[in-house]
Amino acid sequence: MTDDTDDPFEGLDDIRWGRMRHAYGPAVEVPELLRGLADPDPAVREQALDAMYGGVFHQGDVYPCTIATIPFLVRVATRPGLPGRPEVIRLLADLASADDPLGLTALYRQANERVTAAYPLWSALLEDPDPDVRAATAALLPACLEQARSAVARLLARLSAEEHPAVLPEIVRSAAAMARRGESVAEVTGRLARMVTAESDPAIQLTVAAELVALPGPDGTAPAVEVADVLPLIAEVYQTGTPGTPPAGFDTPTLVGALRRMREEADEGRRAPRAAALVRSLSTAYGERVADRLSLLTPLLRAPNWECRLDALMPALNLINGWRGDYDELIALVGEQVRGGDPRLLWSAVHVLQDLGALAAPAADALAQALTTAGRVARHPATQEGHIAWVVEWPDATSSVGPALRALAGAADERALPMLAWALDREDMPKDIGGPIGRYAERAAPLLPILRRRLHDLPTGDPRDHRRDGLMYALARMGPAAAGVVPDLVTLLESGEPPTAPLLGALGAIGPAARECLPYIQAAADDSDRSVSTAAAKALWRIDGDAEGAYAVAERHLGGDRYAVTAATAVLAELGPAASAATDRLRRLLRHGDEHHWLPLGAAQALWRVTGEADPLLPVLERAWLANPHTRREVAALWADLGPAAKGAHHLLHAELGRTHRHNASDHGYSSSQVPDDEELVRLCRAALMS
Prior knowledge:
It comes from Spongiactinospora rosea. The chain is mainly alpha-helical and 691 residues long. The protein contains 36 helices and 5 strands.
């Protein structure tokens, strides 16, 4: 197949596309999609691009049919005057993994090689008359690993001639990305250091500053770009404004189209819509320098300009989610955005606070004030449009606790309890009400009368309705303070309510006051569902001290798979010395080759409680700590129990407390309990050092 034909699609119909597959079946529609990418109608192009990302390059997966499209995509890129060239080049950049081209294998490596084989074309397109083509080409060049030195040289040379404000940032980012991989570091760093002071456009200065901060300096440290230097530039950007996303003038029923519309809507009514990305990239670039990030974001949240405050909120969330620090002042300022009542800031501010747990306390007054005057119910997506409500109703006819109320309850603030009581008493009870109530533990006992009634009037028979299980969680958190609910639980069990693991957990937490339920718990101990039988075993022990019955359950599961064995060790840990017959088995389990280390950790927890032996556990705990960060809360808690015997682990505890990055933070996912869990780890590490 030659590339000098006048028709970029010559030979396209000669390929047997139907014999290849993509994410959704035979790739028969690929010729139509490729032609659609260069169609004069922008709506047709958008639909074709969406289908390429949705099927041929589904979620970043590369198929043989994906590889087969590359020569035609490259041809489209070479044809001046063809519509859709910038989007096609950016698609090729994604196919070539330009964001992270290192270590590619199989089809991913093949895609990269096919795209980067056209490097002479990409080098030439940096001079294309179309600025969108030049910008897209600059974004593709980091994929060119074998030509990296030449690519960096071309990018740096283009910096001198390029004048378009949309192209310069792409060139800067791509050159810096390649320097971070070790290519021409001194050249890139030196050029950007000169550019950050010589450039007259403050938006481009900020782009350069963000990349420079993330690059190593001559001595291995980050170059000196101080926060005090960038704050005036940020203020100038907000004052002078930036271009926005003009309305496209058409609509398509596609994800690509929806994302475009979101950008258009986000930019509407703004003076400096591009400033948000600049603030975000600067904050991210400072990385673990938490003090610098606070020095950047705190004055932005105090600024009179509403755009400035809005654009600081998401970087503040990313900072808190990923890094440890003293955030009282920052969180209080986020709370002020709630108190201000500006609908443009409300949703983002509440989004920052909703999963912080106790860390949200500095914003509690603002949250309580806003909730006191808020409506009690709002239909989604009203809460994303600046409306605060106690309860959010969803299109699927369910409801949930509103994010502002969840934030206040997460801080265990007493002012949230009456609101939670109202939501609990509501006919359409929120599906997640149990979690916020559980935050109060025994302090939620005043809600017990409503909770008891709801246990009876919630519908049954819908396996997707977990609201009763959520209430069981709240009861378990109340512990013995929930003893008044036992007659209601007996009635439920007598009426045929299955003894679920959450119900059994609640009974076990209530303790001896739940003795009336023992016949049902004893029957549940024989259940084939592991979660049910082990919860029943723990309840038998906590309520009646029935070591024999609980041990029988554990012994049965010790013969199962690793998940069953791990569950069995949790039962044995409950029994303590009463499970001494399992001592030898537990010692053997310490050596189990569980790659995630949960099973040997469970065995260690049980062996400590059964025998009080510390020495056999220490290497197991250290291995789990080092291999799987998600075990660290359990390991730290056990080290705290071990006391002086765990002195050999103090270096690990000190190292953990010296980290600024949260132990569970990841670039590839997020958990709503991420911040509270890490804050608990910090507390446990300190407790272990003091024990």
